[in-house]
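Weekly modeling sync, notes
Attendees: S.R. (lead), two postdocs, one rotation student

Agenda item 3: backlog of single-chain predictions. S.R. asked that every request posted to the team notebook include the full sequence so nobody has to chase files. The rotation student volunteered to paste the first one in as an example of the format we agreed on. Action items at the bottom.

Example entry:
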Amino acid sequence: MAKKISTLDKSITNYLGPKHWLSWFAMGIAYSLSFLPWSLQQGLGKYLGRTLHAIAKRRRHICDVNLQICYPEMSESERKALTKAHFESMGKGTVETFSSWFQSQKKFQSRITFEGKDVVERVLAKGRGCILISGHFSSLDFCGSQMPRFIDAHPIYKLQTNPVMNWVMERQRKAIFSKTIERTNMREVLKSLKQNKAVWYAVDQDYGRKNSVFAPFYGRQCATIAHIGRIANMTNAPVVLYDYGRTENGYLLKLTEVENYPSQDDVENATRINELMEKVIAPKKEQYYWTHRRFKTQPIKGDPSPYDK
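Predicted structure, as returned to the notebook:
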């Protein structure tokens, strides 16, 4: 597997060789598409998603397995319809990401509805910063790029294997956010909270046995990151649920303080987080990242993954 390396201290000249030309060509297309009107972007994204649905057999399988686990009451035809809608949503999210990289955030501000100004004022008045938690939805990058208009959030990010994508992505995030934090850098997380800033974690992916505890998600035990509760206990920082998503004519961003959290028990804290994720997924199922292998790590080491064929 290719090593994931930050490009922030690298010149663009490091990535101009022939092996990167295809990546730069793709970035040129992405740049061009970012100038399309919003309605055309949505239509293009929908058809891009349909194309991916037709050719991405492995991802369709992962999506279907997840839906069988989380919604056992669904019929096969209902799962197929939701899978197709999911891919259309992910296609829209791909084109939206291009806009978040290459366009001013002001271009789309009229399509943004924000709820939670009072939450921001209340939690930051405590002087301990706050921990934003969210799930992975198809408008993640686009809605994330709008957050600094409402709260000084420091997102936790994961590097990609493609260095050209990292070069663009890291600089875009540096331009938008006052600070970004690579997900293994706990020192910077604590520093940001001490400075009364918001630290933003997406909490719903499987990072393996080492960094997780097992807690129910849609009734099935899955690896869930344990350090949200630990950080909250260590710093006494309030935890805020960040819900976001695509609406008919734009996007809704909503913040809600999580009451009576954390406890002193890692599994109890992880269970609470998974319950919150289920709650925000319910009204917009098609927008969730069903193509992520959420149940990859098994409670009993050595048991087969549900995604194995």
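Discussion: group reviewed the output briefly. The mean pLDDT is 94.
Action items: rotation student to repeat for the remaining queue; S.R. to check formatting next week.
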